[in-house]
Amino acid sequence: MLKILGKASSINVRKVLWTCAELGLPFEREDWGSGFQSTDDPAFLALNPNAMVPVIQDGDFVLWESNSIIRYLAAQYGGQHLYPAEPRLRARVDQWMDWQATDLNRSWSYAFMALARLSPAHRDGDALAASCRDWTHTMEILDRRLEQAGGHVAGPAFSLADIPVGLSVNRWFHTPFDKPRLPAVAAYYDRLAEREGYRLYGRNGTA
């Protein structure tokens, strides 16, 4: 049985949980992270020296980094419909997963911590304004891409890339600040909510 180490509220753990739902893959999950078992525990550090969730144990195989985990699960457990083997189709999926992990993540980090998490360490007004501008800019890129691609980020069909991107879209709608109207993103948000995995782990009231 696949074991997932990480608390269910973590956005990166939710990537893995949603992927398992798409694959119909059973798993056991243990709560690790803030508020639960400490990731500084030597037993956890032996699995991931970065002290971060998620970590998976698939038999004697241990893996960390959420995007690497979901790529592995799709490749290992019949997820070619999510992560195609054909190099150009796979590269398009990888491109948008990497964009989410770098450009999109970086743009929303400060604004999310300030406005959704109310972090005392994120009270700089100029930094907040810059983050809101950057986040809006990346979401406008996503809006144009979704309109161009025909409904999902890597093309017309749902793919592995929609899992990290979809969770970031959920975060966009749950963070309170003035936002432009992005019709393709709004339609995408509703379209993803038709998927059981997204209802369970994406659009579930948790940012």
UniProtKB/TrEMBL annotation:
What InterPro entries does the record tag this protein with? Answer: Glutathione-S-Trfase_C-like, Glutathione-S-Trfase_C_sf, Glutathione_S-Trfase, Glutathione_S-Trfase_N, Thioredoxin-like_sf
Q: What's its EC?
A: 2.5.1.18
> What's a single GO MF annotation on this record?
glutathione transferase activity
Q: Does the keyword Transferase apply?
A: yes
Which ranges form a coiled coil?
none
Q: Which residues form the GST C-terminal domain?
A: 86-207
Query: Keywords, A to Z?
Result: Transferase
| Record domain GST N-terminal: where | 1-81
Asked if the Swiss-Prot or TrEMBL record annotates the protein with the keyword DNA repair, the reply is: no
Q: Which family does it belong to?
A: Belongs to the GST superfamily.
**What is the name of this protein?**
Glutathione S-transferase GstB
Which species expresses this protein natively?
Answer: Achromobacter insolitus
